[in-house]
From TrEMBL:
The keyword Glycoprotein does not apply. Belongs to the acyl-CoA dehydrogenase family. Keywords: FAD, Flavoprotein, Oxidoreductase. InterPro entries: Acyl-CoA_dehydrogenase, Acyl-CoA_DH_CS, Acyl-CoA_Oxase/DH_mid-dom, Acyl-CoA_Oxase/DH_mid-dom_sf, AcylCo_DH-like_C, AcylCo_DH/oxidase_C, AcylCoA_DH/ox_N, AcylCoA_DH/ox_N_sf. It comes from Cryptosporangium japonicum. Residues 122-216 form the Acyl-CoA oxidase/dehydrogenase middle domain. This is Acyl-CoA dehydrogenase family protein. The keyword Ribonucleoprotein does not apply. Residues 5-118 form the Acyl-CoA dehydrogenase/oxidase N-terminal domain.
Length: 370
């Protein structure tokens, strides 16, 4: 599949202009504040970027997963951070289950307002007792008439501070994968509390929280899909999430490489630019190689996933794409730090979004971002 059609070139240009105008001048302040303003969501919706990848019939802008990843790539290449992507596009993991379930009431109440930039959605799976072992989650939802009574907690929830509606994995049946369901739990429901923001090594502007549920009564109308079908719904969407993280990682590597190239051309030691040193050139070549390999492999896996998402070896290839890209990001950012020396340790508009991302990307190689 082509990643460089005329339409996608226009999409890149639109994303680049939006990033340079609406994001880059404000990003350092947002990183320090620890969250993104809601006005950014409205601006992204007005620009037609927030709803890309979602059907127009549910309030989206149309397009496919490649279009979504082109926006991610270009935002990072134009000066955005991976944390910005996580915070602005959390609905990319919070809404797909609702869209697939196609309940018109849920689409009207939860999906359309988010894609319009008015509300924020999140996904809550990870718990304090476990992360990647989704089948072992403990948050319990017991049916009581027209409601479910939810008790438990979730941890490391992206956009958990700001979210208006959280698609939450709960246990409605017995142990294991067969007893899990998805419920949308709304901000302000009695018994639903949100912790103070969790401070992280990177992804600063992506607010992250622990959510607690103390006998929270959730309308049964907020059940997504059939009861006890939640594990399958989650697994279906995890491939898209992992591939999205892979794109963020190789795009961050590419951004770091570009910044490093600019720096070594102007930085002089002993009356010669760093770019003239053979050792530095070797490092730059290896940075470029790792970035290109990660980009090429990730895009190939995305193409195959779109062609046949049920292909037998795709689960392992998706995981390998994510780990390959994250490893490349880690190495490239580390080498950039060696080349730029003290600048890489400073919080600055050019570097804070890239050097701080490496630690977050590396840790993201294992647990889901939810």
């Amino acid at each position: 599949m082509s990643w460089d059609t005329p339409e996608r070139q226009l999409l890149r240009a639109t994303t680049r202009r939006f990033t340079e105008r609406e994001i880059v001048p404000h990003l350092p302040a947002w990183e320090e504040a620890g969250e993104l303003p809601r006005s950014l969501h409205r601006a992204a919706a007005k620009a037609g970027l927030l709803g890309v990848g979602f059907p127009e019939s549910v309030g989206g802008s149309g397009g496919d997963p490649i279009d979504v990843q082109i926006i991610v790539e270009e935002m990072i290449l134009s000066g955005g951070s991976s944390g910005l992507i996580a915070g602005l596009f959390t609905h990319g993991i919070g809404l797909p289950h609702l869209v697939a379930a196609n309940d018109q009431d849920q689409l009207d109440r939860f999906v359309r307002p988010v894609l319009a930039g008015e509300n924020i959605a999140a996904l809550a799976v990870t718990e304090p007792e476990g992360g990647s072992d989704v089948a072992a989650l403990r948050t319990r939802a017991v049916r009581d008439g027209d409601h479910y009574v939810v008790t438990g907690s979730k941890l490391f929830i992206t956009s958990g501070i700001r979210a208006d509606a959280v698609t939450t994995a709960v246990r409605t049946g017995g142990p294991g994968a067969g007893g899990i369901s998805l419920l949308v739990i709304e901000r302000g429901t009695p018994g639903f509390t949100v912790s103070a923001p969790l401070k992280k090594m990177g992804w600063w502007c992506s607010d992250t929280a622990e959510l607690r549920f103390d006998e929270v009564r959730v309308p049964a109308a907020n059940l997504v899909g059939a009861e006890n079908s939640g594990f399958g719904q989650l697994m279906t969407q995890f491939a898209a999430e992992r591939l999205g993280l892979a794109v963020q990682a190789y795009a961050t590597a590419a951004r770091c490489l570009a910044l490093t190239l600019d720096w070594v051309k102007i930085r002089e030691t002993f009356d010669r630019p760093l770019a003239s040193r053979q050792v530095v050139r070797h490092k730059l070549a290896e940075m470029a190689r790792r970035t290109d390999v990660a980009r090429t492999y990730t895009r190939a896996v995305i193409d195959d996933w779109m062609a046949d998402p049920t292909h037998g070896d795709l689960v392992s290839r998706v995981a390998m794409a994510k780990n390959t890209a994250v490893a490349a990001c880690d190495e490239v950012v580390d080498t950039a730090g060696n080349c730029t020396a003290a600048w890489a340790t400073c919080v600055s508009p050019r570097w804070s979004g890239t050097t701080a991302t490496a630690a977050s990307s590396a840790s993201a190689a294992a647990p889901p971002r939810s």
